[in-house]
Amino acid sequence: MTEAELVPQIQAAMGLAQRRVRNLIESYPGLYPLFTLEGHWRHNKAHWTNWCDGFLPGLMWLFLESGLADDPAYWRAKAEQYSKGLDARKNDRDVHTLGFIFYHGSHKRWYEATVLDGQADTGPRDVSIHAAKVLSQRFNESGKYLRAFLGNDSMLIDAVMNVPMLLWAADETGDDKLRQIAIATAMTTRKFMVRGDGSVAQQAKFEMRTGEFLGHFTEQGYRNDSTWSRGLAWAMYGFADCYMWSKEPRFLATAEANARYFLEQSPPNGIPPWDYDAPATGAFSRSQTDSSAAAIAACALFMIARILGEVPRAVPYRNTALAIVNTLTRPPFIHDDPQWEGILKGGCYHMHKDLGINESSMWGDFYFVEAMNMALAAIARSHPSPVAAAPVTAH
User: Fold this and answer.
1) Burial class (CB in 10 A: 0-12, 13-18, 19+), 351
2) Bridge partners, 347 (sequence order)
3) What CATH number is associated with residue 372?
4) Can you give the residue range of the structural domain that contains 246?
5) Is 319 helix (H, G, I), strand (E, B) or coil?
6) Could you tell me which of 118, 139, 114 has the C-alpha nearest to residue 127?
7) In a domain, 218, yes or no
8) How is 85-112 classified by DSSP, letter by letter?
9) Structural domain total, the chain
10) Binned average pLDDT, 10 residues per bin, the chain of 395 residues
11) Does residue 394 form part of some domain?
12) What pTM value is reported for the model?
């Protein structure tokens, strides 16, 4: 597979993604789903927590950003409608994931679209900034972290994906307190949740009064000391994004440590097991993949390679990201199955709760489309049209 051949493969996958999202919003108007059950978005399985609502409008904004939208006016109207439907979530004090909703998914992308239009509508910008200030209220001063929805003594690795919203809001408003909270949270995450080999823990607990670190735990990984692959991907992406906004070199160093672990431990196609330390056989076997972790990791690897620029160590990051996109844009992870309503198969939400196993998820679909956008941009930067026939290789 060359990069020239990968481009039409991505274009075809982008077309399928738009058909699937159009079917979702027309079949289930007003639904903000989390994961599929036997390929269907509407079901009665538990969601566990409400953190994904921004990814559906985010997909629509990504279609528009790609330049491959099949009907730009339709997607713009729907993206605004589904983003606006989340306005009330800006006051949600029950989750630590408002960045997923308003920064990655809905309102910040909406605002950026208006800037590109030359209108700069501050309405969606203000909603995102308000959400950032609400998120900052979760900061535990003693432990220097954003407390998780699980409890005041808990921080989860995906908090680092939400920190960049605070950094962005600080830049937009000049509010240095937001920046201080963001940097402190990322530093605490780096210190207590990233191991020496670049692997990560999912959860850290602290003594509430003193902020003393008490130990590692997990909700979704195989065990407390294992490396849950989606947690690794969250860390890789989150620290790279934190570096983009802060230019703190330790954040880039951490993202690269996570990336090296990913490259060393993942199979050549870049699709990791749900947990790197899961056993070879049994109910929690490492044979279960998590395609959503691969999609997130591909985005992170593209980001790190772009930050590093034309240096030799960027090459394996970029190549692995392209290899992941090549894998995910082909069966069995994506194909035109009329009975399947999601985009990306092979995901894994929560093994222990039997949720979203070998299914599609909103975050998997979202970061898959973002990874395709990043792949097209990376190829275009390296090979101005017509695309040169550079090989797509993994690590």
Assistant:
1) buried
2) 359
3) 1.50.10.10
4) 3-382
5) helix
6) 114
7) yes
8) TTGGGGG--S-S-HHIIIIIISHHHHHH
9) 1
10) 90 97 97 96 85 96 97 98 97 92 96 91 95 96 90 89 97 97 97 97 91 90 94 98 98 98 95 96 92 98 97 96 97 93 96 94 98 96 66 66
11) no
12) 0.96
